[in-house]
Amino acid sequence: YAMLLSLIFLIVLVAAVVGFVFRHEIKTNFESNLNLALRDYNVTADRHSEAVDTIQRTLHCCGVQNYSDWERTEYFTQRGIPRSCCKSQDDCSEEDLKDPSKAKLKVFVDGCFFLVTSTMESKMSVVAGISFGIACFQV
């Protein structure tokens, strides 16, 4: 039983250290994966497109750095900016989404990368506190 608790303690400790040491690599990988998800975004219900839509709807953001990131995608040439970027679903037509100057008024202009990373960083103290509490309980 003591060996099992020691193993769990070490796993929590290693995960915390790795997360802290490699946080910049995690951000870089997240940004590149988000760029890939935008590039490969399509209307079919694949999980990457659903994840992009969920992030954009939940955090009220659009694109990686800003909404203009969509202009470099194949999806934009066909359908414009996705509806998940719209501030109001009722006031967001496909014609507006195909025109970047009109879309600026109808969609969230902030990028998702900064919002996701700042949300994760703000929650890290909670995760660290819980991990510390579990470690103390184990000791």
From TrEMBL:
Q: Where in the cell is it found?
A: Membrane
Its membrane topology, per UniProt? Multi-pass membrane protein
Q: Which UniProt keywords apply?
A: Glycoprotein, Membrane, Signal, Transmembrane, Transmembrane helix
Signal peptide limits = 1-19
Coiled coil region boundaries:
none
Q: Which InterPro entries match?
A: Tetraspanin/Peripherin, Tetraspanin_EC2_sf, TSN6/7_LEL
Using the UniProt record, give the first listed, main subcellular location: membrane
- Keyword Lipid biosynthesis found: no
An example Gene Ontology CC term for this record: plasma membrane
- Top-rank taxon: Eukaryota
In terms of Pfam families, this protein maps to: Tetraspanin
Physiological role: May be involved in cell proliferation and cell motility.
Q: What is this protein called?
A: Tetraspanin-7
- Source organism (scientific name): Phaethon lepturus (White-tailed tropicbird)
